[in-house]
């Protein structure tokens, strides 16, 4: 179990996961003990006004080490990442950021004897050759997107640093994450967020995948809880050092549209698939996350109807 004396650096803190994760970590560990690391994007006021913010490029070792030394950082959550849609448009940048930052932070952690590192992986590690339903933890990893390629390589790098240097690095294969609190864009699962944001704004939505597109999805609040749970679990409970399968919901784009229409009956959604359809089609329909459930008691809390109701009734993620 991590000590109460953790000092945490979250890179990519202004992003979709970072915004919610920093807030939760500050509640648990104290505002001053959680440093929001941002590259260029300024974090939301909820982050900027509650604790330290540092501007750093997570691929630059000297910059990461300077922040680690300044605050006595013990733990890094490295959320700096280029998402799948953007990575397909700019594969060089995705390789550089996704793997460059991971390698830099693993090296900083080993050299500085940090206690823990978290790195996000994704359902994008799977591809068309992977079993699509109830996808197992250990299976074929032949991704078809550049984003997926970086995630498979990164998972193996994590495992190597655990094996070779005994570094306590932990990871989750996130499904598509849904929140309207912070929208960064660039992802394939973003049609879910865009659909909800359009409904909230009273606008029609042109969806970039087919209505029958199904993939594993999850409310951001559940994803943040899972991230904190895997990091708080005793090391002896962590049997997987590549990345844990993680699941909550699986539903089609049409099912989301139907759920939205229960609250916004005149919501209009049309479907015009673009290049992201190919990426979505290569991802699983559903995930077997029994290892996460057995090792550190993962349980999701938020159903599709609650997620949609909370977002549409309050204008925010549940
Ligand atoms: N949800 C991310 C994306 O769509 C993948 O992890 O890019």
What is the H/E order? Answer: EHEHEHEHHEHEEHEEHEEHEHHH
- Terminal CA distance reads 28 Å
Overall strand count: 12
Poorly predicted runs: none
Question: How would you sum up the major sheet?
Answer: 7 strands, parallel
Helix run count: 12
Bound ligands, each once: serine
Structural class: alpha/beta
Mean pLDDT: 96
Radius of gyration: 19 Å
* Net shape: globular
3D architecture notes:
With 318 residues, this protein is α/β, with parallel strands linked by helices. Helix content is 43%, strand content 16%. The chain is built from 12 helices and 12 strands. It has helices spanning 16-29, 45-48, 61-71, 84-89, 91-111, 146-165, 190-201, 220-232, 253-263, 276-282, 290-296, 304-314; strands at 8-11, 34-38, 53-55, 75-78, 116-122, 169-174, 176-178, 205-207, 214-219, 244-245, 249-252, 269-271. The strands form 3 sheets. Strands 3-2-1-4-5-6-10 form a 7-stranded parallel sheet, sandwiched between helices. Strand 1, helix 1 (16-29) and strand 2 form a beta-alpha-beta unit. Helix 1 packs across helix 8 and helix 7 runs parallel beside helix 9 (253-263). It is globular. The two termini are 28 Å apart. 49% of the residues are buried. It binds serine (SER). Serine (SER) binds next to loops.
TL;DR of this structure?
With 318 residues, the protein is an alpha/beta fold. The chain is built from twelve helices and twelve strands.
């Amino acid at each position: 179990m991590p000590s109460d004396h953790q000092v945490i650096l979250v890179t990519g803190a202004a992003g979709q996961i970072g915004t919610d994760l920093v807030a939760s970590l500050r509640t648990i560990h104290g505002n001053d003990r959680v440093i929001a690391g941002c590259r260029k994007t300024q974090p939301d006021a909820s982050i900027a006004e509650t604790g330290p913010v540092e501007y750093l490029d997570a691929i630059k070792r000297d910059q990461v080490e300077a922040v680690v030394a300044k605050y006595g950082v013990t733990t890094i959550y490295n959320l700096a990442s280029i998402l799948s849609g953007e990575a397909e448009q700019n594969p060089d940048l995705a390789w550089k950021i996704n793997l460059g930052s991971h390698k830099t932070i693993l090296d900083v952690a080993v050299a500085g004897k940090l206690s823990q590192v978290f790195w996000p992986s994704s359902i994008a590690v799977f591809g068309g050759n992977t079993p699509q339903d109830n996808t197992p933890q250990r299976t074929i990893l032949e991704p078809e997107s550049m984003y997926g390629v970086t995630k498979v390589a990164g998972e193996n790098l994590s495992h190597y640093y655990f094996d070779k240097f005994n570094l306590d690095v932990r990871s989750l294969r996130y499904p598509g994450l849904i929140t309207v609190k912070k929208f960064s864009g660039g992802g394939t699962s973003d049609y879910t967020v865009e659909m909800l944001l359009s409904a909230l704004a009273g606008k029609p939505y042109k969806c970039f995948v087919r209505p029958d597109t199904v993939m594993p999805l999850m409310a951001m609040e559940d994803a943040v809880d899972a991230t904190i749970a895997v990091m708080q679990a005793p090391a002896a409970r962590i049997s997987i050092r590549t990345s844990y399968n993680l699941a909550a919901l699986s539903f089609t784009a049409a099912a989301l549209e139907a759920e939205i229409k229960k609250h916004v009956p005149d919501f209009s959604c049309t479907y015009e698939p673009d290049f992201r359809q190919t990426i979505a089609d290569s991802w699983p329909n559903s995930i077997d996350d029994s290892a996460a459930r057995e090792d550190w008691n993962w349980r999701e809390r938020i159903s599709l109807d609650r997620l949609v109701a909370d977002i549409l009734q309050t204008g925010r993620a549940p």
